[in-house]
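User: Reviewer 2 asked us to show a designed sequence for the structure in our supplementary figure. I'm pasting the structure tokens here. Could you produce the per-position amino acids so we can include them in the response letter?
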């Protein structure tokens, strides 16, 4: 039976080395380290860690992976206060956050209760719209889910690493869940911007990538958004 929820992080082979896009759900980094070992590589082969946004289910392993690899850590400046735990709560709220597991559908409550990743991760580079990373990834500012959310577009292979800017469910492009989207208006604009690109593969932040009928699906969703279609509660 297929899981109804999981977070996707990615490892991309490039001419500049191995690149991590988001960093798993475990603050020990074990899910990412296991994935690196599975493809026959070592942590030090990772040259950059690209983070789409601060939510713990996308950034939990970033600090450990950065420490093990010595890789660059790259995210948008508007997320910095969260990533470095400047927004973290203390006291009862923090204690409640610690009660939630780091994996599974309840992980979102863990991050939101403490309002920061479990471990601080400092950027070696802040990016903004239009920046290019290792001559491979174009940076797109895609706010809405969070204020400083970014997506990364592999211009050579036409792959969009969308984070939570959009969702893929059962082979269809969908909205992210409405309750966890900070600004619906900005999020709609960000989705349209993503789908303006020539995309052959969409790698979202949850469930599974989309590699068939991608442009047709983008066109369908673009039309729905243009008609101001409703945003379902669960996307």
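Assistant: Here is a per-position design you can include in the supplement:
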């Amino acid at each position: 039976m297929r899981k109804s929820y999981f977070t996707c992080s990615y490892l991309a082979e490039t001419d500049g080395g191995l690149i991590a896009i988001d960093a798993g759900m475990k603050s020990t980094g074990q899910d990412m380290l296991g994935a690196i070992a599975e493809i026959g590589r070592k942590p030090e082969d990772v040259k950059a860690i690209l983070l789409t946004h601060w939510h713990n289910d996308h950034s939990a392993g970033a600090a450990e992976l950065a420490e093990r690899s010595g890789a660059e850590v790259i995210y948008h400046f508007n997320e910095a206060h969260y990533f470095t735990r400047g927004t973290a709560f203390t006291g009862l709220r923090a204690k409640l956050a610690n009660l939630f597991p780091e994996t599974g559908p309840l992980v979102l409550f863990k991050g939101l209760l403490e309002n920061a990743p479990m471990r601080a991760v400092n950027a070696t580079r802040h990016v903004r719209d239009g920046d290019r990373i290792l001559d491979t990834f174009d940076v797109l500012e895609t706010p809405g889910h969070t204020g400083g959310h970014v997506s990364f577009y592999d211009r050579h292979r036409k792959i969009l690493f969308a984070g939570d800017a959009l969702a893929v469910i059962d082979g269809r492009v969908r909205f992210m869940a409405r309750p966890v989207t900070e600004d619906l208006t900005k999020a709609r604009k960000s989705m349209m911007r993503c789908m303006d690109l020539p995309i052959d593969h969409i790698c979202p932040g949850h469930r599974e990538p989309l590699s068939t009928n991608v442009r047709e699906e983008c066109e369908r969703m673009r039309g729905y958004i243009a008609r101001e279609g409703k945003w379902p509660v669960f996307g």
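For the response letter, you might also mention the following. The chain has a mean pLDDT of 91. DSSP finds eight helices and twelve strands in the chain.
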